[in-house]
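Lab notebook page, bench 4
Experiment: in silico fold of construct C2
Operator: M.H.
Input chain length: 94 residues
Purpose: comparison with the prior construct
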Amino acid sequence: MLATVYRDSGKVALSIPAAREALRVDPRQVEARIILCSDYKLNGSHCEAGKISEEIIAADPMFSLSTYARKKPYKFRKTLERIVDVLRDAGLPD
């Protein structure tokens, strides 16, 4: 949750370690990987974002951005759309 708040408020440099810590605590977390993937892409680490997107698909072969977006309770639709666009650019499927 903390990583999401940092990312969505533009503090990607703080979001990355928070997402990494969530993965350290529970390496099976797909949500933490999704946040980390978007963080890397937003931070310009395109190669790292691509690697994480591959891990997401490996962990959840049925993953789709449309399903992900439908489950997210964002008050501001533009924020969600921006994150989905970033994740799409990182290689995650619609």
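Observations: The helical segments are 2-8, 12-25, 30-42, 46-59, 65-71, 77-89. The first helix runs from residue 2 to 8.
Next step: discuss at group meeting.
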